[in-house]
Amino acid sequence: MAKDPTLGFYKVIYFCLFCSLVILTQSAPENALVTQLPGFAGTFPSKHYSGYVNIDQSHGKNLFYYFVESERKPSEDPLVLWLNGGPGCSSFDGFVYEHGPFNFEAAKTNGSLPQLHLNLYSWSKVSNIIYLDSPVGVGLSYSKNRSDYVTGDVQTAIDTHAFLLKWFELYPEFLSNPFFIAGESYAGVYVPTLSYEVVKGIDAGTKPVLNFKGYLVGNGVTDGAFDGNALVPFAHGMGLISDDLYEEVKNECRGNFYHPLTDTCESKLKKVDENIKDLNIYDVLEPCYHYPQTPETTDIKIRLPSSFLKLGKTDRPLAVRKRMFGRAWPVRAPVRDGIVPTWPQLLNGQTVPCFNDEVATEWLNDAAVRKAIHAEEENVIGRWELCTDNILYTHEAGSMIKYHKNLTSRGYRALIFSGDHDMCVPFTGSEAWTRSVGYKILDEWRPWTSDGQIAGYLQGYENNLNFLTIKGAGHTVPEYKPKEALDFYSRFLAGKPI
Question: What is the rounded distance in angstroms from the CA atom of residue 465 to the CA atom of residue 469?
Fold first, then answer.
């Protein structure tokens, strides 16, 4: 009996369809799947993955990530990379204290672990999100060659881009998702420099090709002059210094508060410091625990603005909050020869007043937790710290304004958001530098709302650059205003007006 010539054709078609199906259904590595977490008794609302990506085999250079799939439509929802700042601070800061899938409740007894409860305002409600410990040497990321712990802006961007390329090889099903980069504080440097590196890779045809759409920066370090000169106007606007002192400082310093050029200017700035020294720098409305003066804290006072001595804390349901020292450079911190010291280095290991990162520290240094999230044990990489002094970091990228202008002029969307009660990187600086870019205002300063209430103010510029404040929020916006943060985050990712 003669063979039907169409059978061979159909076999080829079926084979091709089978191959396509295999490719399309290729999924995240099963050995990275997180199946349970100590302290949490419920069911995860979405899949979680975590582990290491090696970006340099010869050095044993490993970056740690924790990946949370969207609780909505993981195959379609945006994918966001989250970075905390420092430099030297772990992105578990964001996971534990800000917008991760859980709220953490302090342990009830000594020796027990914190309890985890589902977070109603997790950013995984609307997006897939990767929490990355970067640069190497921070958090749970490590290298077998300690020379890798001497790094800076450029190398960090290169390394994180290398991580992304390898991560997408492990999770190819997310390549078509809209991709965004987000972060806060010193990540105001990480985010635009990494975004620029990603765009360079796209232009060069680097594989895999990332579907990069834009970025978000919260209370971010951007430009020495703008950031440094923001404190005095902020303090005056918040009623922290008098009209008379403000006029004196303006006249004597001539608007240059960051690098005082005269002794008279310096003496006026010391009066400002004296007025604000006991405030919580991360949220001027929040209380701060005052330690008694000691020789060590006196020494700190000599080298740092007095306003950075007393850090405070906030309350959030089900969680013990921390106020950590090192999410961003101080307004007038010493930066010598481009070296940005991490805050444990600045303090020579001394305890910082109001410092409390106990919940995250207890949880991430527990052996069962390390095992559950596929992290190396403490005897291999040491203890997890919210902010480490393992690294020596150089800030060599300069002002970020040129990066923002380059990216937005090419069509990438940018949201610059600021908690309006943060005195560490005040909104006055971010408002000023976004205006300085020179773009035409398309959406003039107006309130934006959440749940029918004014949640802050927004000014929109051409080329998809938007500046937004969050009313009553401090340095880490989602920590203070989780609902409002999820609102603007959701709208921005969806390309909707805020």
Answer: 14
